[in-house]
């Protein structure tokens, strides 16, 4: 039985972009919200501070190198890098992946997870879009403004070709993850016009074969909607796999919105659900665990917090998920996340736990 490899979900933020400057203010990155976060109740650990105050800049190649070498040292096989492509005319937060591509000597595998969605401001009533920053960084100026920041537009074959051509240098990288000589490409929101996604994937398959591959290995995030490709991956926490789970999380969210109270969840209970669902997963579904969660830096009192977590609990639960993955002969398992500081989900060392979570990863890998 081969060892399952651990992929840490990776946020390619934390560097200045013209769009962030225009939308949220000069120099805004996720660090802005992380630094400004305040404790909202007794015992609330905020703000989260990276070890040695290392508020890195991911437009700097040395920062990418430091991350990749640290991940490799502690047994992380690769990064699952979020990919923000809105249309053939707009892509965002691409710099970190491009810097990784340039540094061929870095011993880290990787793949892309396309977070195919529309971005909006918090006050926008546009359905099916996501907000990307706290309301304190924005103002509604024009009453005619829809609040759309970046609109998802799949386009047609011409646009799909432009997208594929951008991806091709990454696909050709020996470190880019492939299954049966097919680059793995993940869709985070398969339910958003899956009919078009399927057509795009079929076209990319042809282009990949022309480029010397056996096609593209498309995987989609599993969910209660049951829409997507045959091959799937899971994301945790808070992604429902059944309608009952969906209604549970939705009701908690609605109560939070009405009462202006934080949504609280228990670490053990959330992981126990993951484990039970993992045991029932099919051979084509890659599993996922999480480090912790607290997105109050982004959402304030409307945030979600998973309480009672610790490095030791992470070891106990995530090691069980790894065992299930291995018993089901799955090649990879995801963990949320390498660096989601604005969501309190990170393996990187901080001022409180130091390297403890990375040490648990290394312990799990050494015990495989």
Automatic annotation (TrEMBL):
GO molecular-function terms, A-Z: hydrolase activity
UniProt keyword annotation of Hydrolase present: yes
Keywords assigned by UniProt, alphabetized: Hydrolase
Keyword Hydrolase: yes
InterPro entries linked: WbsX
Pfam (any one): Glyco_tran_WbsX
Gene3D superfamilies cross-referenced by the UniProt entry: Glycosidases (3.20.20.80)
Protein name in the entry: Glycoside hydrolase family 99-like domain-containing protein
Species annotation: Faecalitalea cylindroides
């Amino acid at each position: 039985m081969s060892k399952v490899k651990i992929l840490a979900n990776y946020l390619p933020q934390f560097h200045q972009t013209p769009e962030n400057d225009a939308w949220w203010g000069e120099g805004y990155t996720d660090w802005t919200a992380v630094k400004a976060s305040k404790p909202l109740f007794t015992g609330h650990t905020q703000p989260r501070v990276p070890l040695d105050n290392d508020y890195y800049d991911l437009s700097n190649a040395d920062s990418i190198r430091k991350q990749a070498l640290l991940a490799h040292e502690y047994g992380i096989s690769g990064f699952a890098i979020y990919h923000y492509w809105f249309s053939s005319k707009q892509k965002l937060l691409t710099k970190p992946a491009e810097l990784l591509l340039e540094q061929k000597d870095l011993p880290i595998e990787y793949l892309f997870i396309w977070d195919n969605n529309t971005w909006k401001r918090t006050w926008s009533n546009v359905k099916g879009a996501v907000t990307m920053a706290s309301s304190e960084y924005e103002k509604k100026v024009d009453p005619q403004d829809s609040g759309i920041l970046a609109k998802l537009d799949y386009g047609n074959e011409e646009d799909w070709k432009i997208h594929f051509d951008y991806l091709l240098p990454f696909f050709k990288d020996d470190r880019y993850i492939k299954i049966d000589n097919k680059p793995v490409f993940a869709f985070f929101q398969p339910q958003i016009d899956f009919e078009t996604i399927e057509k795009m994937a079929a076209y990319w398959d042809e282009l990949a074969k022309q480029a010397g591959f056996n096609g593209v290995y498309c995987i989609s995030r599993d969910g209660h909607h049951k829409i997507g490709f045959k091959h799937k991956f899971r994301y945790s926490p808070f992604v429902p796999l059944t309608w009952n789970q969906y209604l549970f999380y939705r009701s908690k969210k609605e109560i939070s919105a009405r009462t202006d109270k934080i949504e609280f969840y228990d670490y053990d209970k959330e992981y126990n659900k993951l484990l039970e669902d993992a045991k029932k997963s099919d051979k084509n579904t890659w599993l996922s665990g999480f480090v912790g969660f607290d997105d109050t830096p982004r959402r304030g009192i409307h945030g979600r917090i998973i309480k009672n977590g610790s490095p030791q609990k992470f070891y106990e639960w995530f090691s069980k998920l790894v065992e299930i993955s291995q018993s089901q002969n799955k090649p990879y398992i995801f963990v949320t996340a390498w660096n989601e500081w604005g969501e309190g989900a990170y393996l990187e060392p901080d001022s409180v736990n130091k390297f403890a979570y990375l040490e648990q990863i290394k312990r799990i890998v050494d015990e495989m």
